[in-house]
Design goal:
Layout: H1 14-30, H2 37-44, H3 48-51, H4 58-82, H5 87-101, H6 103-110, H7 123-134, H8 139-157, H9 167-176
Helix pairs in contact: 1-2, 1-4, 4-5, 4-6, 4-7, 5-8, 7-8
């Protein structure tokens, strides 16, 4: 097992890294419709059966992409709160910015059951740590903060707010309940 940036261990072959990158590029460019075994194989210039030698099924393919997303979210939240005088607004801004910049990945990460059993060890905990720190390590408060942030960004990326909605004001009001 090789040490990875999640703080846990995970072994990815060079081909699996290529597969994850191709899958992510397709997801970003085409949305979930582009994330198929055949499309990823085509993007890599290989036959679909060859892909199955490296990734057993679509669930495993999606988890490669999801794991990469969790690493990115963790890095974004860690960077935003590292030197922030007020970590809560910095955390919320980083979370929102990430989701809005990567809506297809955000949905893949959050709109279906999370296969924790297939994630690299320690990855989910790493991504949650900035939320825990911002709430004084109160697990219930951290979950409530995540639920608020998730609800806000989900409604935003799904186009559910009216065009004249003052989202910064809504974020400020919601975050005020956590201070």
């Amino acid at each position: 097992m090789a040490e990875n940036s999640t703080g846990g261990t995970q072994t990815l072959t060079e081909r699996q890294r290529q597969i994850a990158a191709a899958a992510r590029a397709l997801l970003d460019a085409e949305g979930p419709e582009g994330l198929t075994m055949r499309r990823v194989a085509d993007a890599l210039g290989i036959k679909a059966p060859s892909l199955y030698k490296h990734v057993p099924d679509k669930t495993a393919l999606e988890l490669l992409v999801v794991a990469g997303g969790f690493v990115e979210v963790a890095e974004a939240l860690e960077a935003a709160t590292a030197d922030a005088a007020e970590p809560l607004p910095a955390l919320a801004k980083a979370y929102r910015d990430y989701a809005v910049a990567h809506p297809h990945l955000y949905r893949l990460m959050n709109y279906q059951p999370l296969r924790r059993d297939l994630l690299p060890p320690g990855l989910e905990e790493r991504a949650a740590m900035p939320l825990l720190a911002a709430t004084g390590h109160d697990g219930d408060k951290a979950r409530a903060l995540w639920a608020f942030a998730h609800g806000m960004v989900s409604l935003e990326i799904d186009g559910r707010f009216p065009p004249d909605a003052d989202l910064p004001a809504a974020w400020k009001a919601g975050l005020a309940t956590f201070v």
